[in-house]
Amino acid sequence: MRLIVLWLLNACALLAVAYLMPASIAVASFSAAMVAALLLGLVNAVLRPVLLLLTLPVTLLTLGLFLFVLNGLMFWLAGSLLEGFVVSGFWPGVFGAILYSVFSSLLSSLLAERKGQK
After folding, report:
1. Which of 18, 23, 67, 85 would disulfide-bridge 36, Cβ 3.0–4.6 Å?
2. Given a cut of 60, is residue 58 above it in pLDDT?
3. The pTM is what?
4. Which residues pair with residue 87 across a beta bridge?
5. In which domain, by residue range, is 81 found?
6. Are 103 and 40 in contact (CB under 8 A)?
7. Is the pLDDT reported for residue 51 higher than 80?
8. pLDDT computed for residue 111 by the predictor
9. Residue 95: which H helix or E strand, with range?
10. Cα–Cα distance between 80 and 74 in angstroms, integer?
11. 23/47 Cα distance (integer angstroms)
């Protein structure tokens, strides 16, 4: 049940990012946001660890700033794979990934606080 709620919250976070960046990120519908949130979760679970390992020297050299590039590329990749989710370029992907992670973290922390109150 918690996984489904997190998935819905991530879809809402993706809609918020599209609302704040309308010129560069577009989401066609809530169902497209749900599919995009699922794809972003899968990309982060499967592809991210491999990319982190392969780019570890560059990440250490840039003191972790290269992680923003990786997150932006993965966000852009998800936008290019789905029809209802559009990311117009690399920099919108980087800024969209930052906003998405902030919104997703905030919404997830609200869920965690609520769980702790029970």
Report:
1. 85
2. yes
3. 0.86
4. 25
5. 2-117
6. no
7. yes
8. 79
9. helix 90-117
10. 10
11. 28
